[in-house]
């Protein structure tokens, strides 16, 4: 049995599902941001797998852009989280309701 | 044969790290699980011949983002009742439904008949030539630089202490 692109897509799908579960079930904002990172990595696995099996490098260039965007997202997200923590003294997003409406 | 064995081991590491991220009682353990999963993804990139991306993954994610999450974990105090990630009852249902639907779609897509992996290797030279010499991705590349600058300024602005005049 050789490794086909299907296996990589399957791995990416599993990783995305786990990240989605973490994002939906978690109440801690730090854990939610980490779940988002997992989902972005699942997308990167797919991009690189198709790039490699199609035999060109465009997917890898896209994945490099995705990594840069994800790093910016993590930085801004954690800065927002620190500002929220300074105002509310909690990272429990179920208790932070003032921003909802 | 050895390929599939390596792939299985790396996949197990990635999935184990991801499960630790979602399930760990303490948020610090979740960050360590995230580091494990991200390093595993770097190993996946190596098996796919994306050497440049693997290095970037280790540098940016394992070096930068994980340290950022560690800072956030230490600067915020998680409540004790937050330790167990218990939320809406529909969360596992929706994740499982998504997995099943995606599995059906992927299985019916004929990806498995795509054949063997190409011999193209994503070294720094090859990816750099694609970005610069072919002139396709130059503008997005510069825009990403601008976006990173804007994100840096925004993060500093959001995270700084309010100065009382």
What's the structural blueprint in terms of helices and strands?
The complex is a heterodimer of chains A (101) and B (165).
Chain A: H1 5-25, H2 29-54, H3 58-88
Chain B: H1 2-23, H2 27-47, H3 51-75, H4 90-107, H5 124-133, H6 138-159
Write up what this structure looks like.
- The complex is a heterodimer of chains A (101) and B (165).
- Chain A has helices at residues 5-25, 29-54, 58-88.
- Chain A is an all-alpha fold and 101 residues long.
- The longest helix of chain A has 31 residues, at 58-88.
- The model of chain A has no long low-confidence stretch (mean pLDDT 86).
- The mean pLDDT of chain B is 83.
- The radius of gyration of chain B is 20 Å and the shape is globular.
- The N and C termini of chain B lie far apart (68 Å).
- Chain B is 72% helix and 0% strand.
- Chain B has two domains: 1-78, Up-down Bundle (Four Helix Bundle (Hemerythrin (Met), subunit A)); 125-165.
- Classes of the chains: A mainly alpha (101), B mainly alpha (165).
- At the A-B interface, α1, α2 and α3 of A face α1, α2, α3, α4 and α5 of B.
Give a brief description:
Chain A is an all-alpha fold. Chain A is built from three helices and no strands. Helix content of chain A is 77%, strand content 0%.
**Residues in β-strands, percent of chain B:** under 5%
By CATH, the topology of chain A is Helix Hairpins
The number of distinct β-strands of chain A equals 0
The CATH class of the largest domain in chain B, by name, is Mainly Alpha
From the structure provided, what is the oligomeric state, counting identical versus distinct chains? Answer: heterodimer
What is the alpha-carbon Rg of chain B in Å? 20 Å
CATH architecture of chain A: Orthogonal Bundle
**What characteristic shape of chain A results from the CA principal axes?**
elongated
| Number of E-state strands of chain B | 0
């Amino acid at each position: 049995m050789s490794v086909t692109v299907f296996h990589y897509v399957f791995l990416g799908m599993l990783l995305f599902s786990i990240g989605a579960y973490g994002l939906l079930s978690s109440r801690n904002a730090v854990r939610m941001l980490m779940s988002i990172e997992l989902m972005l990595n699942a997308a990167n696995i797919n991009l690189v797998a198709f790039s490699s099996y199609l035999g060109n490098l465009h997917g890898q260039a896209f994945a490099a852009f995705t990594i840069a965007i994800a790093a910016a997202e993590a930085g801004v997200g954690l800065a927002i989280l620190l500002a929220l923590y300074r105002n509310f003294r909690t990272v429990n997003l179920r208790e932070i309701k003032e921003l909802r409406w | 044969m050895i390929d599939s064995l390596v792939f299985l081991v790396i996949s197990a590491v990635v999935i184990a790290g991801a499960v630790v991220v979602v399930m760990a009682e303490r948020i610090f353990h979740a960050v360590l699980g995230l580091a494990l999963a991200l390093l595993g993804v770097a190993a996946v990139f190596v098996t796919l011949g994306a050497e440049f991306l693997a290095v970037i993954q280790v540098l940016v994610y394992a070096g930068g983002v994980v340290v950022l999450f560690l800072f956030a974990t230490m600067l915020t105090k998680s409540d004790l009742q937050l330790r167990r990630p218990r939320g809406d009852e529909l969360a596992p249902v929706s994740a499982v439904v998504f997995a099943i639907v995606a599995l059906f779609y992927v299985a019916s897509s004929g990806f498995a008949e795509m054949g063997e992996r190409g011999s193209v290797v994503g070294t720094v030279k090859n990816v750099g030539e694609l970005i610069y010499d072919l002139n396709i991705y130059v503008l997005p590349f510069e825009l990403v630089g601008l976006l990173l600058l804007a994100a840096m300024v925004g993060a500093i602005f959001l995270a700084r202490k309010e100065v009382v005049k």
